[in-house]
Amino acid sequence: MDLQGMKERAALRAADELVTSGMRLGLGTGSTAVFVVRRVGALLAEGRLKNIRVFATSFQTELECERLNIPHYSLNSPELGGGLDLTIDGADEVDPENRAVKGGGGALLIEKLAAYNSGRFAIVADESKLAPRLAVRFPLPVEVIPEARLSVSRALEKLGAELTLREALRKAGPVITEHGNLLLDIRFREPEEPEELEERINRIPGVVENGLFAGPGGARIRPRIYIGRGDGAVETRD
Ligand code: 5RP
Question: Is ligand 1 within 6 A of the CB of residue 92?
C-alpha cells in the first residue's frame, strides 16, 4: 500500500472510533489530517454524525471545513468555550513513547493550542513517521517573532541545534506563519530529552512555540496513535 493509502486508513479508523455526535472537535492540519476532515464531513452529510462543533487548526483546514459544510468556530466562541472534547491531528515524527514532532505545515501554534485544550488527543500517521528519536532526522520547527530571529537563533545554537530559516516556496523570502511570525527549523546531532527540550526552547524570549508535543507544556495528555502500515493494517498505541 502507498503512503496515501496508509494515511487514509489511519485517519478513517481514528475518525470512526473516536468521533461521536455532540462533540467539540479539534481538526488538525496536513495531508493525513485532511482525511479525518473529509470523513467527518461525509458522516455529517449522511446524518450519521450530528451537532459537531469544529475548531480548525489552520486556514487550510478551515477551507476544507467550509467546502464540506462542517460548522467551525473560534476557540473563544460560546459554542466551544475555550475547550474541546477531542482533537485528531497528523505528525511529522512519533517516538516509541508517543511523543511527537509537529509543524511541518507550519501550524504548530494552533495545533498545540488545540491539543492542550482537548480532553482527548489522537495522532494519525503512516508508518514512515515512526522515529526512534525526535528532531534528529526531521527538523523541529520553532516559531519566533520576526524581531527575535537572530537572538533566538543564537540561543538555539547554544543548545546545540543546527538551524535554517524556513523559506517560502512560491514567494521570495521566508515563510510567514498565520500569526505573522517566522519558522526556524532545527536539528540536533545528538538526541535530546524531548520534555526538557520542549520547555527549554519555549523559555527563550521571542519564541512563540515549538513543535515538540512531549510534556505538560505540549499536549496535557499523551495521544493515542493510529499508524497506517504498508500491509493495510492500522496499529493503535496508547
Ligand atoms: C502541520 C503538521 C502536520 O500534522 C504534519 O506536518 C504532518 O503532515 P502530513 O500529514 O501532511 O505529513 O504538524 O503543522
Answer: yes
Supply the mean pLDDT for the chain.
Answer: 95
Pocket test for ligand 1, best of 8, 32, 101 (most atoms within 8 A of CB): 32
Neighbours of 82 (CB within 10 A): 11
Do residues 183 and 152 lie in contact, with contact meaning Cβ atoms separated by under 8 Å? no
Q: What is the CATH number of the domain that holds 108?
A: 3.40.50.1360
Residues with catalytic function: 111
Task: Report the separation in Å between the CA atom of 102 and the middle of ligand 1, taken as the mean of its atom positions.
Answer: 6
DSSP for residue 34: H
Retrieve residue 157's grid coordinates.
Answer: 545554537
| 61, three cell numbers | 483546514
Judged against a pLDDT cut of 80, whether residue 189 lies above it is answered with yes
The pLDDT > 70 percentage for the chain reads: 97
Q: Is the CB of 26 under 6 A from ligand 1?
A: no
Same domain, 22 and 72: yes
Q: Flag whether pLDDT at 226 surpasses 70.
A: yes
User: What's the number of domains the chain is made of?
Assistant: 2
Q: Which residues of 42-79 are buried (b: 16+ CB within 10 A; e: fewer)?
A: ebbeeeebeebbbbbbbebbbebbeebebebeebeeee
Which domain covers residue 12, as residue numbers?
3-131+218-237
pTM metric for this prediction? 0.95
One domain for residues 9 and 53: yes
